[in-house]
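User: Run a structure prediction on this.
Assistant: Running it now.
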Amino acid sequence: MTAAGRRQGARTAAARPPWGYDASVSSTNATVEIDHSSPVPLHEQVAAAIRRAIAEGEIAAGERMPPARDLAAVLGVNANTVFRGLRTLRDEGIVEFRRGRGVTVSGIGPQRSAVVVKARELVTLARSYGYRPEELAEIIAQVS
């Protein structure tokens, strides 16, 4: 092996997280990987991966999440991307940020998460058909 190959191998081994995870988050049904070539923003893919883990019971209500830097290493993205995804989940009420205690899953997270996901799908569909938010709100009021 050449010196360059040894350096590359050493760099690759050093880049692997010491806790033994690979570059994906496993869930009960499938392995979730972040697709850097996808048109879906990376932070939304991160939020979706965490939502799935919560929905499938890998992270229970009240449980602390791994540090964002660890999640970033596992998912193969920048830590700021993970923070942005976590802020999205915080705004949805799925996770809570607690000073000195990290990020924990809220008790109402999984139930609300499903509704928020469907609402986003509805908004995306409505936009694709040219509806404005006010018009969509009127439609929802009519069907309720």
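The mean pLDDT is 77.
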